[in-house]
């Protein structure tokens, strides 16, 4: 027969293990490169330089994208897109680190997975544009 302290210890251990495997409640989540797919176009996330994530909606969950342009069009019909709690992350194409998409600078004329043509960087560079301008150009391009 199992003792009560052993059952309590087992329950605590299982709870701790479950907590370790939950995704964070804010920020970008881990991407399984070449396995995770873009929620808009269903292409595999393969090119780290142009990946993006959105965290938002009723459950504040994370959504993964292969191209900044997919984020723009996907968010366009989400009622919570402009909610301050909605987080948008893009990969800095130079450092390989996640950065806030609204604060990033976008370099046009890049060969991106879905041909929207913008690579994000943390600091301004000659010819780079801000989030709103990059978003506007993606919408003008269409797809």
Provide a quick synopsis of the model.
The protein is 25% helix and 17% strand. It is an alpha+beta fold. Strands 2-1-3-4 form a four-stranded antiparallel β-sheet. Strands 5-6 form a two-stranded antiparallel ribbon.
Report on this structure:
This protein is of the alpha+beta class and 143 residues long. The protein has one domain (25-141). Helices cover 25% and strands 17% of the residues. The chain has helices at 4-20, 68-75, 131-141; strands at 52-56, 61-65, 87-91, 98-100, 105-107, 119-121. Strands 2-1-3-4 form a 4-stranded antiparallel beta sheet. A two-stranded antiparallel sheet has the order 5-6. Strand 3 and strand 4 form a beta hairpin. It is elongated.
Q: What keywords describe this structure?
A:
alpha+beta, 4-stranded antiparallel beta sheet
């Amino acid at each position: 027969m199992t003792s009560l302290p052993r059952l309590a210890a087992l329950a605590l251990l299982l709870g701790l293990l479950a907590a370790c495997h939950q995704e964070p409640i804010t920020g970008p989540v881990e991407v399984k490169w070449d396995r995770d797919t873009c929620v808009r176009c269903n292409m595999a996330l393969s090119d780290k330089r142009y990946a993006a994530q959105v965290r938002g909606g009723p459950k504040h969950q994370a959504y993964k994208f292969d191209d900044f342009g997919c984020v723009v069009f996907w968010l366009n019909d989400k009622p919570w897109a402009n909610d301050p709690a909605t987080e948008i992350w893009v990969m800095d194409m130079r450092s390989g680190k996640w950065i806030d998409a609204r604060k990033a600078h976008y370099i046009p004329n890049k060969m991106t997975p879905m041909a929207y043509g913008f690579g994000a960087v943390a600091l301004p560079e000659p010819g780079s544009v801000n989030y709103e301008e990059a978003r506007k150009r993606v919408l003008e391009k269409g797809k």
